[in-house]
Amino acid sequence: MSEQSSEKASELLKLLNYPMISKTHGVALDDEPGSGAFRLPSHLPILPLNGVVVFPMTAMPLRVGQSRSVRLIDDAVLGKRLIGLVTVRNREAEEPGPNDVYRVGTVAAVQRLFKSPDGTITLIVHGLLRMRIDDFVGTSPYLTARVSAIPEKIEVTLEVEALRRIILDSFRRMNELSPTTPEEMGTMILGLEDPLQIVYSIADQMKKMDLEDAQRLLEIDSVTEKMRFVLTLLTKELEVLELGRKIQSEAQSGMEKTQREYFLREQMKAIQRQLGEADEQQMEVEEFRKKIEAAGMPE
């Protein structure tokens, strides 16, 4: 893991440890701990995202370059406003409109902002809670919509606890086979107790998850169903990784055997040369000569 990746992971961990999500999983808290819950604004600026789904209870680095997106971020930061993040379903749309995005997304806060000389913005957003777009109310200078919060359905059952343990163990095994998650982030996830945060945090680290699967996970209301779905995806990924390791091991073993046999043959030739014996071809000719003489065949 590179030093830059480690620093990015540490930055995201600081945001994830910040007390912005209450235990009700549907109410985000104000910036100061203990200040109480805020009411979700009825209207939010909507930022369409290409190729990524941002989950609640996770921190995500994003890069925006379109003029309207830059304007949206500038206005949100200046006005200390929340934003709505939705994934683009029509990837061919250059400037996604209301018909090009999913209607279920995530309410987020902009936590860090870096402006590049070329005008693009790199930012870190913190997902807070799920939202549904009820209706688009504006498209200029950027998309705005009337939204409503989507509560999470939290079950407290033995099945949830069993799923929590299996999912964490599967994530640990997956990270051992393919260590793409920064060590500090992986340790934090393995220490989580909240089933919902476990689901979203692990899904956020599954970089090979299909966009459609990520959106489906976001739209599932029941934490039990979310956990079953994530476990299915983890099991499939583990099967692929374990099969890949087996194939690689067999190929490596075959290569080592071939190399070992070649090395032994070369050693034998060297020994023979040292002993002044004939080379391999001469030995074969001599062997055939002896067989001819033994058979009594004319020359």
Quick rundown:
By secondary structure, the protein is of the alpha+beta class. It has two domains: 7-149, Archaeosine Trna-guanine Transglycosylase, Chain: A, domain 4 (Roll); 154-293, Methane Monooxygenase Hydroxylase, Chain G, domain 1 (Up-down Bundle), CATH 1.20.58. Helices cover 47% and strands 18% of the residues.
List the helices and strands and how they pair.
Elements: H1 3-16, E1 43-49, E2 59-64, H2 67-78, E3 83-87, E4 104-115, E5 121-138, E6 144-149, H3 158-177, H4 183-190, H5 195-205, H6 211-219, H7 223-274, H8 280-295
Parallel strand pairs: 1-3
Antiparallel strand pairs: 1-6, 2-5, 3-4, 4-5, 5-6
Helix pairs in contact: 1-4, 3-5, 3-7, 5-7
Approximately how much beta-strand content do the residues carry?
A: 15-25%
Order of helices and strands: HEEHEEEEHHHHHH
Secondary-structure-based class equals alpha+beta
Instruction: Write down the CATH topology of the largest domain.
Output: Archaeosine Trna-guanine Transglycosylase, Chain: A, domain 4
Which geometry do the CA atoms define?
Answer: elongated
The CATH homology group name of the largest domain: LON domain-like
Q: How many domains in all?
A: 2
Mean pLDDT: 82
Output the number of helix runs.
8
CATH architectural arrangement of the largest domain = Roll
Which regions have little confidence, pLDDT < 50, spanning 5+ residues? 18-36
In CATH, what is the class of the largest domain? Mainly Beta
Binned, the helix content reads 40-55%
Cα-atom Rg, whole angstroms?
Answer: 30 Å
Per DSSP E runs of 2 or more residues, the count of β-strands stands at: 6
Sheet with most strands: 5 strands, mixed, barrel
In the sheet with the most strands, the strands line up as 1-3-4-5-6
Report how far the terminal alpha carbons are from each other: 73 Å
